[in-house]
Amino acid sequence: MSKILQRILQEIDDQKMIEKLLSLSKADLNSLLLELFEKQTDKMTPVDILKAYQVNRFSKPSDIDPVKFHALEAQLLTAAQKMNMQTVLLSPSAPLGSCSAFGCVDQYNVVSALRGTETLSDPSNMVAIIIADRIKRRIESNTPPVHYATTGRVVRAQAFSGKGFFAHFGLFCMVSSGKDTGSYSCEKQLLMKHLQFYKELLKEHFNATLSIVLRKRGGYTDGDGFFDKMTEVVQTSFPDTPLSFDYDDVDNKYYQGINFQIYMETEHEKMMIGDGGFVDWIGQMLGSKKERCLISGVGLDRFLLLSAKS
Fold first, then answer.
1. pTM for this one?
2. Residues 84, 147: contact at Cβ < 8 Å?
3. pLDDT given for residue 291 in this prediction
4. CB-CB neighbours of 268 under 10 Å
5. d(CA 237, CA 18)
6. Which of 147, 168, 170, 265 could form a disulfide with 300 if both were Cys (CB 3.0 to 4.6 A apart)?
7. H helix and E strand count, the chain
8. Confidence (pLDDT) at 268
9. In contact, 65 and 71? CB cutoff 8 Å
């Protein structure tokens, strides 16, 4: 329990308040919180709203040109559609716990909301949820694999410092789902799809080349064998693409087996624009160890800033 929470419980003189609230049903707890927020906003004036805006980092607009931002979104989504990826327009809200339930993110770093929701903080998690739902309801099959792409404006609660950092920023992501068919053939297919997309995107739209850094991760029984197979498929499928390796932080729990970093190389510089890797989220949701899922993404705000410099 945090010191802040301890202080609050001491001030209201009820050390069991958290347990009492958690004993309520989700619907009753939501009704209680809605009433509290309504009582709180009843006291607020337009002057209070302006003051709140001035100190609330979550509400400040970005410095990014909105025309260029949305043009980049359209550019990436159009490129994804041309590679036979399904595109989806996400809600700005996600189910409460949609990141923390998978062990990816601490809920304190997400902007939690009412009515069982949280502000979207990672579109790849949300797309994985959508895919799992469609597979479970048998309105879609991932044999052969399915590939989705989306963009989203996300909000993160952790504080970022420095010029150009905001609590909200844009992301483009791809999520691919398939089933294990042996010999890591599904993983090879998904990995090739994502890397091919980024290679063609950088070449055709930004006059730049792709370079890749492969990072070893835990999560596979034959970790060395899996990493070697993924390295082999990258070297074979992209022989002219610069490839390097990073063996630090092997026990990172976010990705499974490998994590790849995506770099954009121009005549003048080399810039990291995104990353990706295998995750077990769909397998967790469907209760199947046969499920395979690859995610990747790039930061749109960063992409625009770097592209402007190149």
1. 0.92
2. yes
3. 97
4. 8
5. 55
6. 170
7. 10, 10
8. 82
9. no
Could you give the CA distance from residue 279 to residue 177 in angstroms, rounded to a whole number? 10
Q: Which two tokens stand for residue 177?
A: 């789902």
Side-chain-side CA neighbours of residue 255 (13 Å): 20
With a cut of 70, say whether residue 165 has pLDDT above it.
no
Q: Domain 66-309 belongs to what topology?
A: BirA Bifunctional Protein; domain 2 (3.30.930)
110 touches 119 (CB < 8 A):
yes
What token pair was written down for 101?
A: 């339930």
Residue 310: per-residue pLDDT: 58
Indicate the pairing of strand 209-216 with strand 243-246.
parallel
Alpha-carbon distance 234 to 245, whole Å?
12
Question: What's the CA gap between 172 and 194, in Å, rounded?
Answer: 12
Neighbouring residues of 142: CB distance < 8 A, sequence distance ≥ 6: 131, 135, 177, 178, 179, 291
Q: Calculate ∠ Cα 139-141-145, nearest 5°.
A: 145
Lowest model confidence (mean pLDDT) among 7-11, 35-39, 88-92, 168-172: 7-11
Residues 6+ apart with CB under 8 A from 60: 53, 166, 167
pLDDT of residue 1: 65
Closest of 131, 149, 151 to residue 141, by C-alpha:
131
Question: Would you place residue 287 in the very low, low, confident or very high pLDDT band (cuts 50, 70, 90)?
Answer: very high
Please report, rounded to a whole number, the percentage of residues in the chain having pLDDT higher than 90: 72
Write the DSSP symbol of residue 174. Answer: E
The CA distance from 223 to 8, in Å, is: 47
Q: Cis omega before residue 242 (within 30°)? A: no
Q: What SS3 class is residue 167?
A: coil
- The residues spanned by each domain of the chain are 3-43, 66-309
What is the 3-class SS of 82-112, one letter each residue?
HCCCEECCCCCEEECCCCHHHCCCCHHHCCE
What does the block give as tokens for 166?
């905001």
